Amino acid sequence: MLTLSLFLAASALSARPADPVVPVTAAQPNHADELGSISGKIVWEGERPAPKPDIVMDEKATTGCKHDSINKKDESLMIDDKGGVANVVLTIEVAGAEKKMPAEPIEFDQEGCHFDPHVAVVPAGATLRFANSDDTNHNLHIYPKKNEGFNTNVAVKGTLEKVFAKAEVIDIKCDIHPWMKGYIVVTDASHFAKSGADGTFTIAGLPPGDYELNWWHEELGKGKTAKVHVEAGKVATLEHKVSAKAAGGGGRRK
Ligand SMILES: [Cu+2]
Q1: What is the dihedral of CA 213, 218, 221, 225, to 10 degrees?
Q2: What is the CATH classification number for the domain harbouring 88?
Q3: By three-state DSSP, how is residue 68 classified?
Q4: Domain contains 12
Q5: CA of 18: how far to CAs of 15, 103, 118, 173, 224, in Å?
Q6: What residues have their beta carbon closer than 5 A to ion ligand 1?
Q7: 69 domain-assigned
Q8: How far apart are alpha carbons 12 and 34 in whole angstroms?
């Protein structure tokens, strides 16, 4: 599914609007006018922390990376000037909904000695295609609990395809460049989204009903949103507030 690929490929860019809708068709009902959607926003509550400074790296450990082109942005907590929080993964499990697999592998690049996207959301069973757009080798080292682990070099301009069968949040690192860190969120939810740079997200294709969304963020933890009521042919709005207080053992990596 090209839309999904583009959405994931583009998701680490900070200046773009919310990720586009990932269309998922529910089993029943299955006509567009019988389905509704959620237009949501993840918003920081309270005083905003200062933006994270760029990553400081050991200059001796920058093997092969061109210093001028290293992407040093720390994406572990990104809050825009209106309080929108990026890279929050939202999932909804609709009983009986058909889970559509993307037709094309989901792209995950290494460019500027940086993972792009920082957080990839992957349906369980879908293929993730790791690319290396840099002029130097990278090493992909993942730390799964349920899926098969790997620790593999990806050569210059090379690719590596992997399927993740089981839902879990997986840390990914590059052993050559220790600042390179990211997450692969494998989900078996029927509907999912990731908040964009402005904190907004959209989940479409929902049968009418009341939904509590599961949310996850690497530093802020995880939890459920308030209930949102979805009606056929309408867009329900949801604003979910997060704060440092919300941290509850999410994906924070030591
Ligand atoms: Cu690397």
Answers
A1: -20
A2: 2.60.40.420
A3: helix
A4: yes
A5: 10, 22, 15, 26, 20
A6: 138, 174, 176-177, 180
A7: yes
A8: 33
254 falls within a domain = no
Cα 140 versus chain centre, distance: 18
251 domain residue, yes or no:
no
* Cα 216 to averaged position of ligand 1 atoms, centre (Å): 26
Secondary-structure percent of the chain, ordered helix, strand, coil, rounded to 5: 10, 40, 55
Lowest model confidence (mean pLDDT) among 29-33, 125-129, 160-164, 181-185: 29-33
**d(C-alpha 235, C-alpha 86), whole Å:** 21
Percent of the chain with pLDDT strictly greater than 90 = 75
Distance 33 CA to ligand 1 centre (A): 47
Split into its structural domains, the chain has a count of 1
Q: Is residue 136 over pLDDT 80?
A: yes
d(CA 116, CA 180): 10
pLDDT tens for 195-209 read 999 999 999 999 999
- Count CB atoms within 10 A of the CB of residue 5: 16
Distance of CA 175 from the midpoint of ligand 1 (Å) = 7
Among the residue ranges 27-31, 53-57, 67-71, 154-158, the one predicted with the least confidence is: 27-31
Domain of 18, in residue numbers: 2-246
CA of 163 to the centre of ligand 1 (A): 21
How many CB atoms are located within 10 Å of the residue 60 CB?
6
Is the pTM for the entire model greater than 0.70?
A: yes
